[in-house]
Amino acid sequence: MAVFAVFQTTFLLALLSWRTYQSEALSEPLPLTPESLKVSINSTQQCLHLQWSVHSLAYHQELKMVFQIEISRFNTSNVIWVENYSTTVKWKQVLHWNWESELPLECATHFVRIRSMVDNARIPEPRSWSSWSSWEEVDERNSLGHGALFVFPKDKLVEEGSSVTICSISRSYQNNVSCLLEGVQMRGEQLDPNVSAFHLNNVPFIRETGTNIFCTTGRGDGTGTVLFVSKVLEEPRDFSCETPDFKTLHCTWDPGSDTGLPKRQPSQSYTLFESFSGKKILCEHKNWCNWQVAQDSQEMYNFTLTTENYLRKRGVNILFNLTHRVRPMTPFNVVFKNISDTNATMTWQVHSIGNYSTLFCQIELHGEGKVIQHNVSIKVNGNYLLSELEPDTQYMAQVRCGDANHFWKWSEWIGKNFSTLEAAPSEAPDVWRNVKSEPGYQTVTLFWKPLSKSHANEKILFYNVVIENLDEPSKLQLHSIPAPANGTKLTLDQCSYQIHVTANNSVGTSPASVIVVSGDTGNKVEEERVNVTEDGFSMSWKPQPGDVTGYVVEWCDHPRDLPCDLQWEKLGPNTTSTVISSDAFIPGVRYNFRIYGISTKRIAYLLEQKTGYSQELAPSDNPQVVMSNLTSHSFTLSWKDYSTESQPGFIRGYHVYLKSKEGECHPGFEKAILPDDSVSCKYKIYNPEQKTFVVENLQPESFYEFFVTPYTSVGEGPLDAFTKVTTPDEHSHLLIRIILPTVFCVLLIMIICYLNSQWMKEKCYPDIPDPYKSSVLSLIKSKENPRLTIMSVKDCIPDAIEVINKPEGSKIQFLGSRNSLTDTEITQPAYLYLLPTEKNSSGPGPCICFENFTYNQAASNSGCCGHVPVPPEAPSQLGLLTSPENLLKVLENNYMNSLGEIPAGETTLNYVSQLVLPLSRDKDSLQTDPPVPALCSEYKMQMAIPLGLASPPPNEKSSVSSVTLLDQGEPHH
Amino acid sequence: MKVLAAGVVPLLLVLHWKHGAGSPLPITPDNATCATRHPCQSNVMDQIRNQLVQLNSSANALFVLYYTAQGEPFPSNLDKLCRPDVTDFPPFHANGTEKARLVELYRIVAYLGASLGNITRDQKVLNPNARSLHCKLNSTSDTMRGLLSNVLCHLCSKYHVANVDVAYGPDTSNKDAFQKKKLGCQLLGKYKQVIKVVAQAF
Predict the structure, then answer these.
(1) Does the keyword field hold Disulfide bond (chain B) (predicted)?
(2) Is the ipTM of this complex over 0.90?
(3) Which of A341, A641, A677, A860 is the S-S candidate for A421 at Cβ 3.0 to 4.6 Å?
């Protein structure tokens, strides 16, 4: 039995040894199947982590193998990844492999299996794979906990511009999940009834605190995740190193964007590695690092600058010779020595960069708005003479240095200010004058320009003006004008004077500027127009024969102001043209230029006068036009007060606009459209001095409108309101010619008549002779009747009452009348004969005439009774007469009074008044023919009638009869 | 016995201090002694009212500042992200006795104080540059601490209540950034809602 056991053991060992031999010596393929496969999830990095081992390896055996890994999602048949992983496997080695999933691993079940194959060159093809391991399943969804909706990945850190897949897991099958990125809907894909995926390409950087992604099912709450997006790590730019002293290397670079995210990812780090020395340092700063130069005379350096963050790593490399990267340190101890008014010596020191090194230094001198560069080579201490400086001027000088042998870069500048010393003014002031000659004296105004700083050499304190009378050289006047005056006014007599002007500072006096003024008023020259170019006023003049030391062009910058800011430009004797420009020139202002020649005696004499505009403008206003000589066919316009000199351009003429109702333009006019689109007739006047215009060929009694505007080369004046005018009637002037003289004549006659009224009165209306004073009376008195009586007007008894019925049928009725007046003939005036007629009167007697209220001319003309014009007291009488009783009373009174006034013995005489009584007729004729009433305005010579011819004197009875007559109411004519 | 005490007491302490895991503990029995370090101010109730008014007046501004600082989608989805659904928030009964109201107030303030601490801590990480939000959160926490002290003092001095069992909200330290933002927003929405009722009740 024991023997059998020993044999069996021996056999087994032999068998094992044989197999080993077979395996190694014969290189037969071995079935090395991966075993102990474990799969886990790293949620932070979204990685599947695999680990396995190959148990079949012999002790200390190393075998190169290939492992094929298959990954399926949701189910084993949905293989999403196959990868071969080659490695050398050792005995008892645990192998690891990671796979990063694009889809967050929490959102899906993953299955993993693996198989292997020996990858040994000694084993001939074909090699065979081992059998697959069993599927390993990983599913995180079971550990999600409670909740309706989950979104993954959580708090993922990605680079800007990368692609990310977001997934959501919904507990409900019915929910349709939508996700928003900063309010923008994301396009999703349904991976599973519960799982949706949202792909984000080119993720933007929105804020350092993360980008919120919000998912909702449309019901209840939503949830989300935050994506932390960092800037992309950039490769360092402009990486370079240099040494100031061969002791340290100062390396700098441009780091680009900071990829740090607060509390999520620190800023990228920088590491400097030198390959020759193998040294490596972590840089504390993000854009520079110092490297200590080794003492072993290493000349060549190969630096690699590496930057990295959680997501990326980048590097950049430079190789250089140390001696070619020398940038000296900034020079120091800059000092200025031996400063004069025009020179200064600058000294400085530099830090040593080697025993035999030479430095190349650059000096910059800043002053007077200029920069001057100088170069100099030095060893240790530098100095440089700055010459040709301006006196009393502040300068700044700076210096920097570089390696003269292998120039790499300049050092930093170091500079300092200094000022040169003062000096007397180096140039005479530029002086000009303005001379005004007055009777007996001349006023000379001197102007000078302040010296430039380079010529003043210090602050000018005052100007000295020395006046020398050339006629009496011994007479000198000195005027000291304190600065900063730029002129003075002198009153001199008509002699010639030489004037010296000097500028003075604290150090000394400038050369003198000399001009001569003479009492000569100078010649007058024609004014010409000056050409204008883009550069200014271009003017030229004829060269003067004889000796001319120069020319001066004079003008005013502000010709409209007082003082006008006189300017001048001095030109050489060979110059006959110049262009005057000034910032003060403005469009629309006329500038006058005077060109003087300067004689050898320094006397200025006027050569030419020019005028012009830098830019002409259209007239800004229109002339005040006066209209005169208005006739039915023409009128005259004049604007003589309009000045063509003070306009914003040369006035070239005028436009006369005329509007008429007919719209037709008269000869010489042309149709024009005004700025307000109205049509008018325009007449052009081409002569600017023609300031009157006669508008002719007009229609009488027509309405016209006119408007006059000047024009320049640019255009015409503004459109103003038209002045309206209406031509008079064609015959009106004739009427005026007739009426006026007529009126004049009438007035003259009236005046003459007034002046000769007495004569006229005597001739035309002689005074009624007073009967008492008549010579007849004296004659009669002496011969016949010594008691003659003069007839009184009151004795005249009217014999009829005229009654005129009013058309409207007045109802006035007289007392006792039976018929109303309306029954009578309306057109016939009614007269009541108060005196006895053939029937009821015994004889002729004085007539009594009453006037009706409605007396009119027609009635008076047709009546037999002459009317007595109503005396001033007539209204009152008429008022009383409206009542029949009053009427009778008045009649009675008048009559009785007239009788009463007649003395008893005088009743033999009767007077007839207001009646033309034909003296040739007898009593009968008077009775048969009623007395024809004469015009009441006519007075006849009154005369005494013999008693026999006279009508019987009225008595009380006759008065009664008259009343009775009235009572009868009979109409009388 | 010593061994028992040495083992049990720390265990109890650990259980008690476990964040958010503590269940409300009973109010101190009436016969328990109650001592305060300093005597309460005579107007402590007025101070409580003033503090409530102050918190109520600033609650909405804090809420607005918070959800604005979180960025989209919070300002435009307040109904979904900031709904005041805080399930374990201590109740408050405005019609209860003063003592009951003060006890409930104490629980609320303790809950809010702890939650504000979590929010402040989270926001310093999530929004490190939102200085005004941090300032407002700190200011509210300070007032909350003062209120808690006053309420406790008043409860102790007047009602001899030395200890009130309190509960805390969930710990957010292990939550993801979005959940931290959302929980903070919900809490501040709830705070704005509750503090108004509480302030009116006193």
Answers:
(1) yes
(2) no
(3) A341
pLDDT of residue A272: 94
Query: Which residues 6+ apart lie within 8 Å of A390 measured at CB?
Result: A342, A367, A368, A420, A453, A454, A457
The CA distance from B181 to B179, in Å, is: 5
Q: Are B100 and B15 in contact (CB under 8 A)?
A: no
Cβ separation of A212 and B126 shorter than 8 Å?
A: no
pLDDT(A490) > 50: yes
Report the pLDDT value the prediction gives residue A7, as an integer from 0 to 100. 53
Question: Between chains, do A225 and B125 touch, taking CB under 8 Å as contact?
Answer: no
Residue B184 contacts residue B178 (beta carbons within 8 Å): no
**Which of A180, A207, A209 lies at the smallest CB-CB distance from B73?**
A180
Pick B128's closest partner by Cβ from A151, A222, A263. A263
Amino acid at A754: Y
3-state secondary structure of A413: coil
**What amino acid is encoded at A795 in this protein?**
D
Structural tokens at position B157: 């001095």
A207 touches chain B (CB under 8 A): yes
* Biggest CA-to-CA distance, chain B: 61
Query: Taking a C-beta distance cutoff of 8 angstroms, is the pair A241, A288 a contact?
Result: no
For residue B177, the tally of other CB atoms under 10 A from its CB is 23
The string of DSSP letters for B112-150 reads: HHHHHHHHHHHHHHH-TT-HHHHHHHHHHHHHHHHHHHH
- Whether A898 shows a pLDDT value over 70: the answer reads no
A208 interfaces chain B, CB cutoff of 8 Å: yes
pLDDT at B32 over 90: no
Q: At what angle do helices A874-881 and A884-901 cross, to 10 degrees?
A: 120
| A652 φ/ψ angles, rounded to the nearest 5 degrees | -100, -15
pLDDT single digits (tens) A432-465: 998 888 888 889 999 999 988 778 888 899 999 9
Segment A727-733 mean pLDDT: 76
**Two structure tokens written together for A575:** 């110059």
pLDDT tens track for A559-615? 888 888 899 999 998 898 999 998 889 999 999 999 999 988 888 888 899 999 999
- Per-residue confidence band for A372, with pLDDT thresholds at 50, 70 and 90: very high
Taking each helix axis as running N to C, give the angle between helix B98-126 and helix B177-201, from 0 to 180 degrees, rounded to the nearest 10.
Answer: 150
- A99-149 pLDDT, tens digit per residue, is 988 888 888 889 999 988 887 776 666 678 888 888 988 888 778 777 788
Establish whether the linkage from the previous residue to A126 is cis, with ω within 30° of 0: yes
Predicted pLDDT at A318: 93
Record the pTM.
0.51
Q: A133 near A95, Cβ under 8 Å? A: no
Please list the residues that pair with B95 across neighbouring strands. Answer: none
CA distance A118 to A32: 8
Asked if A961 and A836 touch (Cβ cutoff 8 Å), the reply is yes
Compute, in degrees rounded to 10, the torsion defined by CA atoms A556, A560, A561, A563: 40
What the block records as the tokens of A531 is: 């050409």
**d(C-alpha A401, C-alpha A349), whole Å:** 10
Phi, psi angles (nearest 5°) of residue A571:
-125, 155
d(CA A821, CA A138): 148
Q: What percent of chain A has pLDDT over 90?
A: 30
